[in-house]
Write a structure and sequence with these properties.
mainly beta; four-stranded mixed sheet; binds copper (II) ion
Length: 97
């Protein structure tokens, strides 16, 4: 789960890969996961990669897996899709080769 600024590792996969992300909310706030085309737009989630949504986010302590197939090659981001959270640093690159 994206956390502190600068501490998030880039993820690299190949187009067509089936990717499973284990998401764990170990903070005291509400969060949600998604791979997006635009980190400033939480609605730009691709490939049904969301776990939780801004309207129905993960509660503190919740965890789970989301599995999706990586699409076209390019540089995407994985972010917290709760509005404002990506700008706080819950943002890193998700690179499809
Ligand atoms: Cu968040």
């Amino acid at each position: 789960m994206p956390g502190q600024p600068g501490s998030n590792s880039d993820i690299k996969v190949k187009s067509g890969d089936t990717v499973t992300i284990h998401v764990k909310n170990d903070s005291k706030s509400y969060h949600a996961f998604g791979v997006v085309t635009d980190p400033t737009d939480p609605s730009s989630v691709v490939w049904n990669s969301a776990f939780g949504t801004p309207d129905n986010p993960m509660k503190p302590g919740k965890s789970g897996d989301v599995t999706f197939v990586a699409g076209a090659p390019g540089t995407y981001h994985y972010i917290c899709t709760v509005p404002g959270h990506a700008a706080l640093g819950m943002d890193a690159k998700f690179i499809v080769q």
